[in-house]
Amino acid sequence: MDSGDNTIGATPMPSGRTQATTRRTFLGGTALVGVGALSACGSDDSPTGTAIPPTETSTSLPPVPKLNGDPFALGVASGDPNDTSVILWTRVITNPSKADGGIGSVPVPVSWEVATDAKFDSVVASGAEVATADFAHSVHATVDGLKPDGTYWYRFSIGAAVSPVGRTRTMPTDDSQPSSGQFRFAMATCQDFQGGRYGAWGDAAKLDDLDAIVFLGDYIYELPNILTGPNGDTSRHYTSEVPTDLPGFRARYAQVKGDKQLQAAHETAPFFATWDDHEVQNNYTKDVDPELRQAGYQAWWEHMPVRLPPPQNGELVVYRTLDVGGLIQLFILDTRQYTDPGACPGDNPVGTVPDCEARSDKDRTLLGDTQKAWLLEGLEQSTTTWTALANPVLFAGLVTGTVEDPATKAQVPTFFQDTWDGFPAERATIRSALAKVDNPVVLTGDYHAGFVFDVNDTDAIPPAEGPAVCPEFLVTAISSFLFSEDYTKFNPQVRYFEAKHGYAVCTVTQEDFSCEFRYVDDVWDADSPITVGPTWAVAKGEHTATEVTQG
Ligand SMILES: [Fe+2]
After folding, report:
1. Tens of pLDDT along 249-275?
2. Ligand 1 centre from 190 Cα, in Å?
3. How many degrees, rounded to 5, is the angle at CA 455 between CA 484 and CA 538?
4. Residue-wise pLDDT tens digits, 356-390
5. In angstroms, rounded to a whole number, what is the distance separating the alpha carbons of residues 120 and 153?
6. In what residue span(s) does the PhoD-like phosphatase metallophosphatase domain sit (predicted)?
7. How far is the CA of 63 from the centre of ligand 1 (A)?
């Protein structure tokens, strides 16, 4: 594990972009940059506080255009921390309902600063970026030279306008342990805007001790409006059509990211995010229209605080690791971009099928050859106490119901073939690799209910025969419609199941790995009471989780 480079599978920001070539980063807090140029033509809008004072004139930054409104309407975010660096994100936008964000096509200079206190008395890094219309005026600022295992606060400014303040973290270095004795992260997924409000994010935003937020996909949904709130409430309906191009996807992100509770969660801790299918198209595989995929991927990139280059030709490597000293290494996966289409015929409207011979073809892949090789090599080399897959789709296997076999008239089990159930040969390979690492854990999203599974060493349907390789903690949806079938009746490998909206907070120490399930009582109430569900934990050296605290 190299200090300062925790992105095994990813490439750094490209140096050829306008944004990168004009970036100026200064460390030490005394050498602010370029804001003389910013203030020369600056907007008088100052919706959120005091401007960062100008100390140096630069000729390389464009003038600040006239901005009609708060340019930080989508908030701020940070992400992909390593031991000395973090990515800071914002998007310059004054009118989220307009395709150009209300900014037009002009470049916009954006300054940022990082401090060791929330009042910015002690600024330790600052710099400036140029946000361009090519990337929806998004900003991905790389802050380097920070101290490991540190808590920092950051903000942006454009002329006199200053953004909200975000809190972020760096990770412990190499083999060292967190000074707090733990790595504590929120885990979330599936936030269909039309499915309800983001009370779960509002709850997460109140936690002041999170080291990170792991997001497992479905940040936006491409769906048409099919859900309505109580008493005909359409206030969460999408205001744009199903996206078919880049402006369409941008419109979805602009609407979703306008939610203040989501913004507050981003301000709480750095994200470590992957995508699932709805960032492009429901249940898509590698055969999806590449132009649609490029549009979806670019809009995702523009709106996420990721240490990645922008996608090209419908391709973007998003699998990478989050290294938390010697405590835990998380491998975040992409289970859509390289994925073979479903093997079994007879997909019903909810996407489940009975078994077929083609499912077990040894060459079928969910990860694609390159990602699979990267993961297997990474697992083999992992030396941390814990090793986790941050994995969008269900790994352990799940029988969803039964259908009548036309030939035998017997009831046979069905499953979702866009989960790992559709790829048993590849799953067996990954499962064998997990069995060889110390203390493996699988973390999963996508399924719209809370679960704990035993990942059993079998591909039987249901996978009830052990022994267990590791536990799988599957987090429920923030707001997407719930899968409320009682899966426990078909699936002995399910240790816990609850069909409620919410998220999870996981705590990793040298002794154990635990996840607390947190649920909103009413997904349509932004201020809903929170029900703290059970905490399930696996002790170091064990292969199954147990319920340690009842909800
Ligand atoms: Fe989802």
Report:
1. 999 999 999 999 999 999 999 999 999
2. 4
3. 95
4. 999 999 999 999 999 999 999 999 999 999 999 99
5. 8
6. 185-516
7. 42
